[in-house]
Amino acid sequence: TEVALQRIEETDGTIKAYLTVTAEEAMARAKKLDNLPEGNLPLLYGIPGALKDNMCTEGVRTTCASQILANYIPPYTATAVAKLEEHNYVLVGKTNMDEFAMGSSTENSSFFKTANPWDPERVPGGSSGGSAATVAAGHVPFALGSDTGGSVRQPASYCGVVGLKPTYGRVSRFGLVAFASSLDQIGPIARNVEDAATVLQAVAGYDKMDSTSANVEVPDYLAALTGDIKGLRIGMPKEYFAEGLDPEVAARVREAIQTLESLGAVVEEVTLPHTQYAVSTYYLIAPAEASSNLARYDGVRYGVRVEDAEALLDMYKKTRAQGFGPEVKRRIMLGTYALSSGYYDAYYLRAQKVRTLIKQDFDKVFERFDVVVSPTAPTVAFKSGEKIDDPMTMYLNDIYTIPVNLAGLPGISVPCGLAQGMPVGLQIIGKAFDESTLLKVAHAYE
Ligand code: GLN
């Protein structure tokens, strides 16, 4: 913990991964853990870690990188975080992110931008950019992020670390500030697969406080890391190796797939025919859910309230106008429109039907294959400022990660070499609740 805090002190002035560093509390906590208990140590005993700032931490400010929650101190702790505590981790701080997790570059934070530790001119990815950057910078061995359309896997890919989005329902969302409730999932970002498996082991499991939490047994993830993938069947979706994919990124991913083949896996091309509709489907469903979830920030119940309001309605309007940034407002407007009477059937309902088709594409492939592999993102980390004025290009960046959230499946990004001097990520997608196979393949490769 001391070393982690020292490294943060030394390099976070330029990387800016943290919105809050809990140095004093961390040292106090670590000191308490200096007296080792008898018997087996808990999984994360004394290990420093960081949390994306959209996970509630009792007594520690939780902002979602938004001005509307700039002063919000939650009265309770998210279940996933409470589980880390049960395993005796040490919280060193809360990491920067795109406001309310909306974005792919962490440039939508209302506080400041985070730099990619590989090249400070480039973005760390997003929305869990701070979590990926702090792990890549060597501050801490792990951090938690959240993934609604790729926000754990894409920043992990851009920063050259491992990022895992578990199956929807595997990790409790209680205390994770809701963005799009049917897509959000908390996941670990770590330096290697074994560490990611260890953190998943700690945070996974049923929680009665989250009605969408799945009551499915949590296997021993570390036991899955055997290195043996002989005979394993891998599908390579042709739609994920098409237009828009950087040729150098494609080359690294193909090399990685050859490595898997040389380890005894059987690789075949497959088709996920509805892939082309995934981004549009997502940009109806996610904003629709967001517009509903973000209605609660009215200046009364949470966070900041403007002072110069004349009456209640005026207070709501001013608080929301000043408290939300441009991307959040864009999503609220999109979502409100898609849900409004007369348009619901044409947009939201339609999107839900396409979502089912996307899921069925995967179901069909998983009848014959154990995992599906692809690039995590079409390019390496782009330059800061390059896409921020063009939301469509930013949205298209998530083309390979979004279908996985729409289908509720687990996905992992593992580093597979460099292109243009920057890290490339290999995405491995698995069957629902089969994180073990994902981890096994990623570990065998790494
Ligand atoms: N980049 C996507 C978005 O802006 C996904 C974000 C996420 O996974 N939280 O919605």
List key phrases describing it:
14% strand, single chain, 446 residues, eleven-stranded mixed beta sheet, 11 strands, alpha/beta, binds glutamine
* Structural class computed from helices and strand pairing: alpha/beta
- Name the average pLDDT: 97
Rg is 21 Å
Quote the distance from N terminus to C terminus: 27 Å
Bound molecules: glutamine
Helices, by number, come to 14
| Beta strand count | 11
The major beta sheet can be summarized as:
11 strands, mixed
Helix content: 25-40%
Low-confidence stretches: none
Order of helical and strand elements: HEHEHEHEHEEHEHEHHHHEHHEEH
EC number: 6.3.5.7
GO molecular function, one term: ATP binding
Active site: 52 (charge relay system), 127 (charge relay system), 151 (acyl-ester intermediate)
Organism: Effusibacillus lacus
